[in-house]
Structure to design on (345 residues):
C-alpha cells in the first residue's frame, strides 16, 4: 500500500498509524477547532488498538455494508464505505449527528473525548450513538480506519465553505435595507470543519494521485503535554496554492469555467473605484466589548458619496445564523485617492 521506502520504514509507519504519544494505555492526538485566529486542540483518544475498535469496524462492514470478501483488500472501497457507516444518516451507522443544541436524550458532542466509549456503546446497543458533530465523526473515522491498518489522520479546515450549487461562490442574500434574507440562502461557511485523510495508492487513477486521500464522515447536507507528535501541521499547501498568488487565481478561474456560474470571476467593463475591507482585530473574549475596523478606499479622481450598511449577526460554528446584533447605516463623503477607517462598535 505504501510504495516509497521511507513510508515503509517502521518508525514512519508507526507514527502515521498512531499519530500520538502513548498515555494511560491509549493513543492520543489533538483535533483542532474554533477559529483560524484562535486555534486550540481538543485531546482525542483514538484507541485504534483497543479490541472493541476492530470488532466494531468488522461488525459494520459485515452487517451493514455486507462488503464481499473480494473487496476487503481494497482500501479505496473500504474507506468510502466506512465514511458512510460512521454516520447514521441512511444506513443505521455508528453515530447520529445533531446541531440544534438539544442533547437531553443523548450525550452532547462536546462531552466525548475519544472513540472507544462511542464504539463500546454502539456494540452494546447495535443502535446509533447520540450525538456527534464533525470532529466526533472524524475521530471515530480515524479509529476504524487505523484499526484496519489504513494510515489515517484528522484534518481541520477553518472558514470551511459549503457551496451547494457548484457556483464556486458563497451566496448570501440581503435586501436594500440591509436585512438578511436567510430564506434564500443555501450556502454556508462553517467556522471550522473536520474531515479525514487516508494514505493509499490509487491504481485506478493516473500516476501521481496516490498519497493522502480526503474522506468525510460528517453528513453535512442538513491537559498534559503529549509530545511533538500531537503538534498541529499546516497542510494548506497540499490543498491549494498560496492565497492571492498567480497560480491560485488561475486555478479559481479555470475551475469557475466548469461551475454553474462560469463568468463569476471574469473581469467586467464596469468601473469599480471604491473598495471596502474589514481589518483583522485582536482576540475578543466573551462578555467584552470590541470594534470592527472597516476601511473605505476611494481610488478615483473624484469625490465619492459613500453609503455603508453594516449588519452584525451571531452565528453557530456551522454558519447557521442565530440573531441580529447590530444594524447601522453610515453616509459620508470621501475625497479622491483617500481612505478612511470607520469603526463599528
Amino acid at each position: 500500500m505504501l510504495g516509497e521506502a521511507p513510508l515503509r520504514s517502521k518508525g514512519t509507519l508507526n507514527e502515521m498509524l498512531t499519530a500520538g504519544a502513548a498515555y494511560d494505555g491509549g493513543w492520543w492526538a489533538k483535533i483542532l477547532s474554533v477559529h483560524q485566529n484562535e486555534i486550540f486542540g481538543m485531546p482525542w483518544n483514538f484507541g485504534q488498538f483497543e479490541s472493541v475498535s476492530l470488532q466494531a469496524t468488522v461488525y459494520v462492514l459485515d452487517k451493514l455494508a455486507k462488503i464481499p470478501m473480494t473487496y476487503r483488500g481494497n482500501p479505496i472501497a473500504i474507506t468510502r464505505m466506512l465514511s458512510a457507516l460512521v454516520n447514521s444518516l441512511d444506513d443505521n451507522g455508528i453515530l447520529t449527528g445533531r446541531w440544534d443544541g438539544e442533547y437531553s436524550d443523548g450525550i452532547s458532542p462536546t462531552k466525548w473525548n475519544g472513540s472507544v466509549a462511542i464504539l463500546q456503546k454502539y456494540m452494546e446497543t447495535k443502535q446509533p450513538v447520540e450525538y456527534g458533530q464533525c470532529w466526533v465523526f472524524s475521530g471515530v473515522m480515524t479509529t476504524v480506519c487505523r484499526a484496519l491498518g489504513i494510515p489515517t489522520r484528522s484534518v481541520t479546515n477553518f472558514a470551511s465553505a459549503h457551496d451547494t450549487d457548484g457556483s464556486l461562490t458563497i451566496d448570501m442574500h440581503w435586501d436594500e435595507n440591509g436585512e438578511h434574507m436567510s430564506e434564500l440562502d443555501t450556502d454556508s461557511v462553517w467556522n471550522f470543519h473536520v474531515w479525514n485523510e487516508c494514505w493509499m495508492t490509487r491504481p485506478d487513477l493516473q500516476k501521481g494521485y496516490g498519497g493522502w486521500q480526503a474522506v468525510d464522515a460528517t453528513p453535512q447536507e442538513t491537559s498534559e503535554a503529549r509530545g511533538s507528535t500531537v503538534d498541529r501541521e499546516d497542510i494548506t499547501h497540499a490543498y491549494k496554492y498560496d492565497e492571492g498568488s498567480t497560480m491560485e487565481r488561475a486555478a479559481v478561474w479555470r475551475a469557475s469555467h466548469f461551475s454553474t456560474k462560469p463568468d463569476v470571476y471574469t473581469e467586467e467593463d464596469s468601473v469599480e473605484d471604491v473598495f471596502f475591507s474589514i481589518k483583522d482585530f485582536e482576540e475578543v473574549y466573551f462578555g467584552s466589548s470590541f470594534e470592527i475596523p472597516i476601511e473605505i478606499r476611494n481610488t478615483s479622481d473624484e469625490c465619492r458619496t459613500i453609503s455603508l450598511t453594516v449588519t452584525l449577526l451571531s452565528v453557530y460554528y456551522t454558519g447557521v445564523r442565530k440573531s441580529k446584533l447590530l444594524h447601522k447605516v453610515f453616509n459620508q463623503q470621501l475625497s479622491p485617492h483617500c481612505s478612511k477607517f470607520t469603526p463599528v462598535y
